[in-house]
Fold this sequence. Notes:
The protein has about 425 residues and is of the alpha/beta class. It folds into 2 domains: about 5-35 and about 290-415, Aspartate Aminotransferase, domain 1, CATH 3.90.1150; about 40-275, Type I PLP-dependent aspartate aminotransferase-like (Major domain) (Aspartate Aminotransferase, domain 2, 3-Layer(aba) Sandwich). Helix content is about 40%, strand content about 15%. The protein has 15 helices and 13 strands. The chain has a 7-stranded mixed β-sheet with strand order 2-8-7-6-5-3-4. Strands 9-10-13-12 form a 4-stranded antiparallel β-sheet, covered by helices on one side. Helix 4 (about 55-75) packs parallel to helix 11, helix 11 (about 265-280) packs across helix 12 (about 290-315) and helix 12 (about 290-315) packs parallel to helix 15 (about 390-415). The radius of gyration is 22 Å and the shape is globular. InterPro entries: Aminotrans_V_dom, Cys_dSase-rel, PyrdxlP-dep_Trfase, PyrdxlP-dep_Trfase_major, PyrdxlP-dep_Trfase_small. This is Cysteine desulfurase family protein, VC1184 subfamily. It comes from Actinopolymorpha singaporensis.
Amino acid sequence: MANDVYGIDGIRAAYPALADGHAYLDGAGGTQVPQPVVDAIADAYRHGLSNVGGASAASRRSDGIVAECRRAVADLVGGEPEGVVLGPSMTALTYRLADALARQWGPGEEVVVSRLDHDANVRPWVQAAERAGATVRWADVDPATGELPVEQYDDLLGARTRLVAVTGASNLVGTRPDVAAIAGRAHAVGALVYVDGVHSTPHTRVDVRALGADFYATSAYKWSGPHLAAVIADPVALDGVRPDRLLPAPEEAPGRFERGTLPFADLAGAVAAVDHLACLDGAAAGSRRARLLASMAVVEAYEADLFAYLLGALDAMAHVTTYGKAARRTPTAYFTVAGHTPREVAEHLADLRVNVSNGFNYAWELAAVLGVRDTGGAVRASLAHYTDRSDVDRLLEGVADLARSGAARAAHRRG
């Protein structure tokens, strides 16, 4: 898709941070924020806020912000506002849900996690299962392709399975497993499904019902919002789940899962971020949900084209090794450069004002499967909907420079 069809220049103009001349290819670790989000947060503070449930206009304003944030997040993923649990981070919310759900588990019961996942969708379940005396079973990754084979779940699941945790997309190599097929198998044995959608939400059209997700976690700062998170649950799945809470705190869901006062201004920023995403396709019309689906469709197409260019160029470089060959991926490249540590590559690119990540990026199990966890991991370059061709070209030129500098050093040693 050509840049002028997508309107990339106009999209980039909405992001003040991009004016600094850096190529932000680290969106998987956190995206930049458009001006409407900055304005929404500032406006919320400018007009005054009070805690919810009060008689004042400022309190009613906070009530309205919370309600609208639940509606916006529900629109983003196709959920119900009544099931939107808000919190500081996906990790914090997942620990909270794991602790509450595990109170219903016992010895002999089982949970299934995957080695494709970010550790935030692994360790909370492993630790909760250990406390409950439940057994943890592992879904394995094909190290050659980065795929998570669905068929293995036929052997992993059974009458004692209580929960299956799986990612919507790998934050390391971008693999998008067949979550719906996995969820269908899980539901057939009566298990709940918890999907980590942190890395998939910014790049795909999400429909939690179609995925079969009883719980779907997402982080706003990965889709151009502020630093907060949400778990979107089937309201039925929240019935009977009783987390620890203060006695005066709300007893009904989703409030009983939200500890302490919510960051009202940031919630207003999250609403603005959803509205921003809904406008990425300027021709989209209808409800916010309809506009989001249309906009994310053009995002998927635009990012797929740009990622194919990036990956093809990296694979053509003899001194670069890329990881992951899944058929369905988010635009996330994970690679090493011969003769240089991942940190050295990241520092070289940073000197060129190209921002990437390096290491294992909390994908603890997957980094071990790929054989890079104990050697410094690899370099991760992740595209966002505001990335353009020039950003990618600068990355490729910087990586190519490392081959030339390595050859020069080798020639010098020979001389």
